[in-house]
Amino acid sequence: MTEELSAPPPLPNFGEANNPGPNEWYYVASGARQGPTTATIIRDLLNRKEIETDTQVWRKGMPEWKPLRESDLADLVAAEPPAISSQHIGNGYVWTLALLPLLFGVIEAAVSASNQEAAARSLLLGFPYHPSRGLPFQVPLVINALLGWLDDRRLKQAGYGSRLTRVTAVLFTPVYLFLRAKRSKQRPYYAVAWILSMIVGFLIYASVES
Length: 210
Prior knowledge:
6 helices, 2 domains, alpha+beta, Dna Ligase, domain 1, 210 residues
């Protein structure tokens, strides 16, 4: 529900009639400033996973926004273990995701080449020609969604998952790969590999079709 913001919303204006006290908090959700509210409500939002420990928060007396875990509300998340080192996160699913476009391109190219050979043979021998069909478009979608869900589940168990990664893992593979690398502080090698895999897979298929 929350997103990391490179430029958090402006601090509240104390010229407004509703002037929050020192124990009333603001927080950032969906790119907008929310509040004022209390530490108790902030704790409830955390428990319901509606905000995260890196959600930006602010109250009167603070010079700028801070992540919740670095503010005076840090005690609310003290019992929560930190995310494990990204070196211990398995990358098997994510690398499979990265190479799937190449695999699908090779499969489609092989089917196309087989159809061309069958068409030429049928024309030569005078037999009827029945082209083979490639993979139904639903197959790549389902495989991508399944692998993305499995990888995001692993990411969540490591302490890096969020609603945003869950949605993008199932629906927007390239976005998920870059987001995953950013959240786990890894270099986006597998995201770049996905792009190259997509390009090479398309070129292989196009070379057979032309």
